[in-house]
Design a protein that fits this description.
The complex is a heterodimer.
Chain A lengths: L1 H28 L15 H11 L5 H13 L5 E2 L4 E2 H36 L4 H15 L2 H15 L18 H37 L3 H8 L4 H13 L1 H17 L1 H6 L5 H10 L3 H29 L7
Antiparallel strand pairs in A: 1-2
Chain B lengths: L5 E12 L2 E13 L4 E5 L6 H9 L5 E9 L2 E2 L5 H7 L4 E4 L13 H12 L4 H14 L5 H5 L8 H13 L5 E5 L7 H18 L2 E6 L2 H7 L2 E6 L2 E7 H6 L4 H8 L49 E5 L2 E4 L19 H6 L3 H4 L2
Parallel strand pairs in B: 3-8, 3-9, 6-7, 7-8
Antiparallel strand pairs in B: 1-2, 1-4, 4-5, 9-10, 10-12, 11-12
Helix pairs in contact in B: 3-4, 4-6, 6-7
The chains are: A mainly alpha, B alpha/beta.
Chain lengths: 320, 349
């Protein structure tokens, strides 16, 4: 298991190299660079050219790539041309915000999704099941940005129960209890907006898993052993039904880390999704490249996480 | 004549198709004595397994009527809690397909211990030890290793031995074996049948053996009940049934067995299929549509099981007028069949 994990992590390295080259080439193929959007008629063209030369933007892409990689190995991820700060500083705060948001959303998704799926699958075709599946279809059909807006409008704007934007109230000292509470308060709306839509897949997977598992022979054998109905579900049906969910867990977490752009925009939540979008539209490639590498790394780790979880739950694919 | 272990009276199990209920088991009555093997034979869809599941109370969405008297109580009137004490305890079941009958995510030992825990109050170490003993009892080599294995690491025959170990874990008084060898290859079949007989002798328990394999019946059964379209059409001790079959269905079944003097010739086939539950004509003799050359007047209007000899019961009067389609008398010479397949087993009792 340990050997497998280490080997999988070592494979990520060439994958990241290929990814970084591709990203770099695609970045250079895009028209314009960080300076082309800032043209002020008062700045002489020679000054801009000099600036380009100084930043190395006139070099061919492979020279730029080499310089970038060398610098990275020395711990220098470059400077954001747009923010005029080191890339790591820019990403740092945003990364933590996004980690908290996806953590809250993930916990909510499984906390709400698993019981709903369990009830829905166990009592399939009952009134309750129809209500739950009805909700999941509605959830599949609702765009997240619409749902996010509605939640924001109702609970943030009209009822005023929760703040409508930001990640923390201004003027609260970092590290204090108030700061933590304020952070949590700011997380409630966006994480519910993500989770209430995001859980529909989990509910459907679990529901169909349970409906399929509960008619299997070993479930009948469990009943024939005299196992109580509640234990039949807890011990036999449930574990066999969460396999597809376990298989998707890693991907789900990664998708949340990278994919809450809409919600971050709507709630003006300073996370990575927004940073990524901004860095591309301002041609701030030093930030965009590092972010893409980070996403790539997380995707690989997520797949690994899924494999490890699955092998723990299912002995048939246990890694030796 | 000893006391009956289980008495099934007028058991009718109906399933809902569309909006109406249709009986898959129709007014079935039989009994089993301790240490007796009753074989329930018939084609697929004749209601054999539905009968077994009704006794075990394993039908979720069926309407079950009648009476199942087992150890002084009617099983059909017990609540879930009481049934859970009986199921896997005094009344246990062996399933048809060992490849799917074990939970793929649980160790063999856990699956055996689970039933021990429900029915005994023994300590954990006792249960663990007993689980390994059970595996040894059903002929599994290196039982301590197998106990720690998962089902996918075992072969089909081994898994069926585990399923049997689970069934006998609490020394059941009645063992229901639902086609225990159908999914196994022939050499393993013989081993499993030997094992079941051995255990039955040991535990002195009654067995309801469900099968469509007449070879298995000849080898294992004391008495045979032949089922067709949800009804029992003939009941007789095994020798009597093979030597002197009466009902056209029984005779057609025996006649379609391959035998040596049939070498190179076409086997007899019963024409048609068992009618679907909701398409069945429930008046008159249910086998009549499959022997259309027998005149309608030969059949009874409302066929009942009638005693024609000691312990030999037949439904409908049509047996008196039965011939094969070409007008010939069906062979009754299946005595040899019994000798061939070895009544050696019979001597074990």
């Amino acid at each position: 298991m340990l050997k497998f994990t280490i080997r999988r992590l070592l494979i990520t390295f060439p994958q990241l190299v290929v990814l970084s080259v591709l990203v770099f080439i695609m970045g250079s193929l895009m028209p314009g660079d960080a300076l082309s959007g800032l043209i002020d008629p008062n700045i002489p063209a020679e000054a801009i050219q000099a600036r380009r030369e100084a930043l190395g933007l006139n070099n061919p892409w492979y020279i730029q790539y080499r310089d970038w990689v060398f610098a990275m190995f020395q711990g220098d991820f470059g400077t954001s041309i747009f923010h005029q700060r080191p890339v790591m500083d820019v990403i740092g705060d945003r990364l933590m915000n996004t980690v908290w948001l996806s953590l809250f959303s993930t916990v909510l998704i499984y906390l709400l999704g698993l019981p709903l799926g369990l009830v829905s699958g166990r009592y399939n075709d009952s009134l309750l099941d129809n209500a739950i599946t009805g909700y999941t279809y509605l959830g599949f059909a609702t765009p997240q940005f619409i749902f996010g807006l509605v939640i924001l409008w109702v609970f943030g704007y009209n009822l005023g129960w929760f703040p409508t934007g930001g990640s923390v109230a201004p003027g609260v000292a970092p590290g204090s209890l108030d700061y933590v509470l304020s952070k949590i308060n700011h997380l409630v709306l966006p994480s519910f907006a993500i989770a209430l839509i995001g859980l529909v897949g989990t509910v459907q997977y679990l529901r169909s898993g349970i409906i399929e598992t509960k008619q299997k022979d070993f479930i009948i054998l469990a009943r024939a052993k005299g196992v109580k109905e509640s234990a039949v579900y807890n011990r036999h049906v449930f574990r066999n039904s969460i396999l597809p969910i376990a298989a998707f867990f890693g991907y789900e977490v990664v998708a949340l880390l990278g994919g809450s752009i809409f919600i971050e925009m709507i709630y003006s939540y300073p996370g990575m999704g927004r940073l990524f979008l901004d860095s591309i539209s301002t041609r701030d490639f030093s930030v965009a490249n590092v972010l893409i590498l980070l996403y790539g790394f997380m995707a690989i780790v997520g797949a690994l996480l899924s494999d490890i979880i699955l092998s723990i739950v299912d002995p048939r694919i246990r890694i030796k | 004549m000893s006391e009956n272990l289980i008495e099934v009276n007028n058991l009718t199990t109906s399933f809902k198709i569309g909006t109406k209920y249709f009986p898959a088991v129709d007014d079935v009555t039989f009994s089993i004595k301790p240490n007796e093997v009753l074989a329930l034979v018939g084609e697929s869809g004749s209601g054999k397994s539905a009968t077994a599941f009704s006794l075990m109370g394993l039908h979720r969405k069926a309407r079950i009527e009648g009476e199942v008297n087992f150890q002084g109580q009617n099983l059909l009137e017990q609540n879930e809690g009481k049934m859970n004490k009986i199921r896997g305890g005094d009344l246990a079941m062996i399933f048809q397909d060992p490849m799917t009958a074990l939970n793929p995510l649980m160790k063999i030992k856990q699956q055996i211990v689970e039933t021990l825990k429900i029915h005994n109050t023994k300590s954990k170490s006792d249960r663990d030890r007993y689980a390994v003993e059970l595996l040894e009892r059903v002929g599994i080599p290196r039982p301590d290793r197998v106990a720690e294995a998962y089902p996918h690491e075992l072969s089909g025959g081994m898994r069926q031995r585990v399923v049997i170990a689970i069934a006998i874990a609490n020394r059941p008084k009645l063992l229901i074996a639902d086609e225990p060898t159908t999914a196994l290859d022939v050499t393993i079949q013989a081993q499993i049948l030997d094992l079941i007989r051995e255990l039955q002798d040991d535990l002195n328990s009654g067995v309801l053996l469900i099968t469509h394999d007449l070879g298995v019946v000849a080898e294992m059964a004391d008495r045979v009940a032949v089922m067709y379209a949800g009804q029992i059409v003939e009941v007789a001790p095994v020798r009597e049934l093979f030597k002197n079959p009466k009902h056209p269905y029984t005779r057609s079944l025996l006649n379609s067995l391959p035998s040596e003097d049939m070498l190179g010739k076409k086997l007899h086939v019963i024409q048609g299929v068992v009618p679907a539950l909701n398409k069945m004509d429930r008046t008159g003799c249910r086998f009549a549509p499959r022997i259309p050359w027998i005149s309608a007047s030969a059949h009874e209007e409302n066929p009942q099981l009638r005693k024609i000899a000691d312990d030999h019961f037949v439904r409908c009067t049509c047996y008196k007028h039965f011939t094969l389609e070409d007008g010939s008398e069906p062979d009754v010479g299946v005595e040899e069949y019994q000798i061939e397949t070895g009544v050696e087993g019979g001597s074990a009792r």
